[in-house]
Specification:
The protein is mainly alpha-helical and 67 residues long. It has a domain of 38 residues. The chain has two helices and no strands. The longest helix has 19 residues.
Length: 67
């Protein structure tokens, strides 16, 4: 039953990152919150699958060029 309970966490994103996620969410017919949850779930699944992060440079600073 505990898996059905959702935790609320504060999350701060840059405006550029938020806008990119919001556009992606719209393309996938999800809310921004739903998109973030989906992306985190996929990352955790990938890590469990092969024991590695999705990318080798996951901790590198984001270089998002959004007009």
């Amino acid at each position: 039953m505990e898996e059905k309970v959702k935790k609320q966490i504060p999350l701060r994103l840059s405006a550029k990152l938020y806008n990119a996620v919001a556009a992606w969410a719209e393309d996938d017919f999800r809310s921004v919150n739903g998109q973030i949850e989906y992306l985190l779930t996929e990352c955790v699944k990938q890590r469990k699958k092969n024991g590695k992060y999705v990318g080798e440079d996951i901790d590198a600073p984001l270089d998002i060029d959004i007009p």
